[in-house]
Amino acid sequence: MDPVGPPEGTPPIPDDRSLPGDYQPPLPGFVLREELDRPRGPLRHERSLPLPMRVKTGAFHEDRLVVETAQEILEIPWEKVHLVALGAMLERRETDTDAYNIEKMMGGVSRMLRGGVDKSKVVSKHESYFLDLYVQGLHEPLRFDAALVNYRAFLGRVSYVSFQNFFRLVHGIATRATAARFTPGTGHFLAWRRDHLHFFHALHEFETDSLACLADLDSQQAWSELDLTRTTWAEEWAED
Question: Rounded to two decimals, what is the model's pTM?
Answer without folding.
Answer: 0.69
